[in-house]
Amino acid sequence: MTSSIHDRAVLHNGVQMPWVGLGVYKAEDGDEVIQSIKWAIDEGYRSIDTASLYENEAGVGQAIAESHVPREELFITTKVWNTDQGYGKTLEAFDASLKRLGLDYVDLYLVHWPVPGKYKETWKALEKIYHEGRAKAIGVSNFKQHHLEDLMADAEIKPMVNQVEYHPRLSQEDLLLYCKKQGIQLEAWRPLLKGEIFEEPTLVELADKYDKSVAQIILRWDLQNGVVTIPKSVTEHRIQENIDIFDFELTNEDMTRISALNQDKRNGADPDDPEFYKPFE
C-alpha cells in the first residue's frame, strides 16, 4: 500500500519518482504558476510536471529557485512539443527548456505525442540527453501499445514512463497491464477529468463512505492501480486536498466499482487521430 507522501515509484533504471505531482498545464506563467508551486512544495509535493507547450517553464524555474527544498529532492518533468520533434530540433528544444527552467538537468523528459514519422528520431535525441546525464529518466506521453512496440523495436533504451490520459472514464486497463509487464511506469494526466465526473453517483457514494472528496477517491484509485498521478490546480485548498490521499485505502470491491465506470471516453485527443497531427507534418 502506498501509505506515505514520501513513498516513491521506482523506475526501471532505479530513479525514484513521487507518486503524486503537481501538473501546471494552463497555469499562467509568472505569479500564478509560481504561487501554486510554492503552495504545493509547502504541502509536501516534490514533483512538478510542465512542458514547453505550457509556456510556463520560466515560472516553474523561478519557483524552484525560490524554494526552500534542495534541488535534488525535487522531481521536475518537461516535454518536447510536436513542432520540435526530430533529432536535431529535439536537442535544441531541450536546451531551450533547460534554459527557461534555469536548471542543469531535469528528472524526466518526455516525447509529448507520437508524431508519425518523427517520434523515433525524437527518441534517439532523448537517449543522447539521457546518456549525457541531463535527464535522469526519459519517457513518452500519449503512446498506445502499438506506438511503444514500434519505438522499442529500434530503441537502445526502453521508456521509463508513459504519461497518458487516465481517469475512471478512460481506465486503459490493457495499456496499464502492458506497461507493467514492460516495466514502464504509467502516469495519469487529467486524472480528475476537469471535475466532469465529480457528480458521478458511485464516486459521490464512495467519497461519503471514506469521508473524502471525490477527487481524493479518484486519485487514491490511481495510486492503488500503480499509476503515478499529477492533478493540476492553482487553488491552495485543492492543492492541499489532492495530496491528502495517503491515510486511507479503497477496498478491492470499491476499486472494481470505480474501474467499472470506464467508457473508453477521451477528453483529449486520440493519439491515433491523423487530423491531430496535420499541423506538425
From TrEMBL:
Residues 263-281 have a biased composition (Basic and acidic residues). Gene3D superfamilies: NADP-dependent oxidoreductase domain. Residues 262-281 are annotated as: Disordered. It comes from the Bacteria. Belongs to the aldo/keto reductase family. Substrate binds at residue 112. The record marks 79 as: Lowers pKa of active site Tyr. The keyword Phosphoprotein does not apply. InterPro entries: AKR, AKR5G, Aldo/ket_reductase_CS, NAD(P)_OxRdtase_dom_sf, NADP_OxRdtase_dom. Residues 29-262 form the NADP-dependent oxidoreductase domain. The active site is at 54 (proton donor). The keyword Glycoprotein does not apply. The lineage of its organism: Bacteria, Bacillati, Bacillota, Bacilli, Bacillales. Transmembrane segments: none annotated. PANTHER family: 2,5-DIKETO-D-GLUCONIC ACID REDUCTASE, NADP-DEPENDENT OXIDOREDUCTASE DOMAIN-CONTAINING PROTEIN. One of its GO terms (molecular function) is oxidoreductase activity, acting on the CH-OH group of donors, NAD or NADP as acceptor. This is Glyoxal reductase. Keywords: NADP, Oxidoreductase.
